[in-house]
Amino acid sequence: MAVPLSTSHRYPVSLNEGRNRAFMSLSETIDHCIGKVVSENEFRDEWQKRLLVDGVIISDGWYCPPPYGMAVLSGTIEYPSRVSFESLRMEKYWSSDRIINWSSDLFFAYCSPVHIPSGLPGDLAVTLYFGDDREVLNHFRNSYKAVRDVLESIENYKNSKDLFFASQNIFQNYGLKNCVVSYTDQVPLDLGHTFPKISVSTENGKRFLSDNEKDQIRLLRQFINEKDIWIFSEPIQFTIEPQLISTINKYLPQITYHYLVQYRDGFHICNDVDVFLEKFALK
């Protein structure tokens, strides 16, 4: 029997409490739902219920749409377009009543919670695969190695622009291409972005972000791209979240790994998504 995700790994908890709760609740939801007849919507709702259990997380995420600032998508390796999305803001990539196949599906999960006490976003995302197709498994493992090379190279760079160009070279060396699309960034392609801190109003017990609060987070982000240049300095937090496709086989699925990095007396990487990759032998 597989060890439950929520107890199988010691992971960083000090970088971002919102993300910590996103990870724990996703772990618990997978353990609860795996093997059962569950739709994307039902999985999302169960995940949100667990995410909100102690009342310190805003109940709808800052990245909205998709509904609730969350997305749960599943698809087959024959038709991987369901998880090979352009942008989660597009309605066709919102969670649906599609039943998740726990023995063979591709699976993508994303949430964008905001931790009320700190005012920090706690985004988390990961693509998984439950099947045994050797070519797809190798694609996942190759993509993981490429992203790890990017993460391990961060300390060699002092600014966002240099890191972006380094990542492009690394992905190319692995036969991969990053295809992130951002509607906010002036440059469509990016590697990640900062987590801006906002002051969250909880007047009258409010547990929803206002449109203004969502816009603050959306517009205050600094992107890792070919145009913007900002220095890695304390106490900044930023994401590394490429969406990778193969340049060798166009039929392989898009894969997303979402890491959180903080600069504080050096770089610290929250590698919690590795737990899921280990669980399903994807690294």
> What does the largest sheet look like?
3 strands, antiparallel
Shape: globular
Number of helices: 6
How many strand segments?
11
Number of domains: 1
On the 0 to 100 scale, the average pLDDT is 90
If you consult CATH, what is the topology? Creatine Amidinohydrolase
Taking the alpha carbons of the first and last residues, their distance comes to 20 Å
> Helix proportion of residues, in percent?
25-40%
Regions with little confidence, pLDDT below 50 for 5+ residues: 1-13
What would you call the structural class?
A: alpha+beta
- The rounded Rg comes to 18 Å
CATH C-level class: Alpha Beta
Q: Just name the CATH architecture.
A: Alpha-Beta Complex
Strand content: 15-25%
Query: Strand order within the widest sheet?
Result: 1-2-5
SSE order: HHEEEEEHHEHEEEEEH
